[in-house]
Amino acid sequence: xxxxxxxxxLVTNEDWQHILEVEMSKHIKYxxxxxxxLDIEDWKESLDILGNKRIVI
Length: 57
What we know:
The protein is an alpha+beta fold. Helix content is 39%, strand content 11%. The chain has 2 helices and 2 strands. It has a two-stranded antiparallel sheet with strand order 1-2. It is elongated, with a radius of gyration of 13 Å.
């Protein structure tokens, strides 16, 4: 899984998005006993505007 951290976010590609979301939610709840509210942002549109169609984050 390609995984990067940027400030308070974790970034991966579309193929791994669901797995990252499920695993992070599960582990955060296990460690903190709180159910996290995770927001998913699609960066593909922003990258397409910049002309970079090779990378989908």
